[in-house]
Design a protein that fits this description.
The complex is a heterodimer of chains A (268) and B (244). Chain A is an alpha+beta fold. Chain A is built from eight helices and eight strands. Chain A has a four-stranded mixed sheet with strand order 6-1-8-7. A two-stranded antiparallel sheet of chain A has the order 2-3. A two-stranded antiparallel sheet of chain A has the order 4-5. With 244 residues, chain B is mainly alpha-helical. Chain B contains twelve helices and two strands. The chains are: A alpha+beta (268), B mainly alpha (244). Chains A and B meet through helix 5 of A and helix 8 and helix 12 of B.
């Protein structure tokens, strides 16, 4: 493979839907880790921000055949198609270069101070992974009582009104892991030293995180499973978030299959 | 033949009009200069100088608020092994590390807190030197166990991620490459903060034309990235490396 030679790391995630209980711990952990804002009235979920969103899907059958499945959806961190073109959909449309695909980590960045709030990326993203700040959150002109900023994480800068934000695979945790490695005189970080907050918090251990380019990492093993699939595979966005499900109807829902068309796994 | 006749004709016509234009211009300028008051040149020059003064001197002065540090801490005294026992080391960085050091997880301790100062200035009643500065420091902060609210000259905007350990330990870059002579100053400079952006003047640089003669003159995005490029560390020029 040519890709592995040039690109050093490809951080990715495998979510085992058979293990997911839909408890929502990943969403809570993510929001508090990344200073995701809440509003005084959070009842209008249309405007809520959730870097990892939990969906509930069902097979559309009547009782007693009904089956449901919980479906956590972070940013997919789409990849180039390997031929030099076709960036992640959000990256290629951004008129301000506020979002890029990092060559060395494969993480799609989002620089809030650079963002002009046109929301083109939001429209381009097929996964609804991007959220717009309609109000000031914890930033300078905060609508919150004094002292609230003390509960924020200093590793993640708070967003201001009018910019788009999304999951970053907790990129600051990668930098922290690198700092520790530097202090111990290492240049590379080990597997498990860098995992996002959602993966760490998941009580069912449904989320596995690692370097897809490193065959020794567990994620590289898991994506070889016949149950592995990606969301909207045929768009060729090459997400680095993989799902595992033993149920065919779940895999069928993950892409727009025609009725009767056989479901194809990524490894077929 | 016809062409040749025609060509010089057109040429003289053109050069005559050019000549005419310059004649007009010179007489206009002569008029302007010979009677500057009536021609308005004097007012223009005075106005121009005033505008330049406002733009280049008054505005930059008004743009930055000036504050003195709460304590006039002397790096020269505190990094001199001849004056101070306990601070030793051959290289500069070793002496600095008495106060500015790394934790086990690689994070930088930054400006030391009061407990570090109190390793030596432990008794507010008995100063180590004779200066009034030290007496004030002891009375105000050590006696009340109050942290000194230092202004941070080099503080980067909130969205910037910077870590000392890759630079100091792996990159083996001297403190002075980025901080100049701050580690040997005897008296602290005035802290100037941009009233609009809230950033310290050390980020943008003191030269209003933006010229840079030393590596530490300013620390804007291009200065960080420039050094990474020179040192063949272009892999650190992705947006998310320095931003968070």
């Amino acid at each position: 493979m040519k890709e592995t030679e040039v690109k050093k790391h490809r951080y990715g995630m495998v979510i085992d839907l058979d293990k997911c209980t839909g408890c929502g711990t990943c969403m809570v952990a993510c929001a508090s880790e990344n200073n995701v804002t809440v509003r005084a009235d959070e009842s209008d979920k249309q405007r809520s921000i959730a870097w990892i969103q939990l969906y509930k899907i069902n097979n559309g059958e009547k009782f007693p055949k009904t089956q449901t499945c919980f479906f956590p959806r972070p940013c997919m961190h789409c990849e180039e198609d390997g031929n030099g073109g076709h960036h992640p959909p959000c990256v290629s449309v951004c008129p301000a270069t506020a979002t890029t695909l990092d060559e060395n980590t494969g993480i799609v960045s989002q620089i809030y101070t650079r963002c002009i709030g046109c929301r083109y990326c939001q429209a381009a993203c097929p996964y609804h992974a991007r959220y717009f700040n309609w109000w000031d959150g914890y930033s300078y002109f905060k609508p919150f009582p004094d002292g609230m900023e003390r509960s924020l994480s200093p590793d993640v800068s708070p967003r201001m009104r009018g910019v788009v934000e999304k999951c970053t695979f907790c990129h600051h945790r990668l930098m922290r892991a690198k700092e520790i490695a530097h202090a111990q005189g290492r240049t590379e970080i080990e597997e498990g030293e860098y995992i996002p907050a959602c993966a760490e918090a998941c009580p069912a251990q449904a989320i596995t995180f690692g370097d897809l380019n490193n065959p020794k990492h567990k994620v590289s093993e898991l994506i070889k499973s016949p149950n592995a699939f990606r969301l909207l595979e045929r768009l060729n966005t090459k997400p680095k978030v993989y799902y595992l499900s033993s149920k065919e109807w779940v895999r069928r829902l993950a892409d727009n299959y025609l009725p009767g068309e056989p479901v194809r796994g990524i490894n077929d | 033949m016809e062409n040749q006749d025609h060509f010089p004709d057109k040429f003289t016509e053109k050069s005559a009009s050019v000549k005419h234009f310059f004649y007009m211009l010179i007489s206009y300028l002569r008029n302007l200069i010979s009677n500057p008051m009536r021609s308005g040149l004097a007012y223009f020059v005075v106005g121009l100088i005033a505008a330049l003064l406002v733009g280049w001197v008054l505005f930059p002065m008004a743009l930055y608020s000036r504050n003195h540090q709460p304590v006039d801490f002397s790096h020269a005294i505190h990094t001199d092994p001849d004056i101070i026992d306990g601070i030793e080391g051959d290289t500069e960085a070793e002496r600095c590390s008495y106060c500015h050091t790394f934790r086990d997880d690689g994070s930088f301790t930054g400006i030391p807190n009061l407990s570090k100062c109190m390793e030596c200035h432990d008794d507010p009643e008995s100063p180590l030197g004779e200066t009034a500065e030290e007496r004030d420091f002891l009375e105000e902060y050590v006696a009340n166990l109050k942290e000194v609210p230092w202004y941070r000259y080099y503080e980067q905007p909130d969205c910037v991620y910077f870590s000392h350990i890759p630079h100091v330990k792996n990159g083996e870059i001297d403190c002075s490459a980025c901080h100049g002579g701050h580690g040997s100053t005897d008296s602290l400079p005035v802290y100037e903060k941009n009233r609009i952006s809230g950033y310290s003047i050390n980020i943008w640089g003191k030269n209003i034309s933006g010229r840079k003669t030393n590596t530490w003159d300013r620390m804007k995005m291009d200065d960080c990235a420039g050094c990474h490029t020179i040192n063949s560390h272009e892999e650190n020029n992705g947006c998310f490396v320095c931003h968070k």
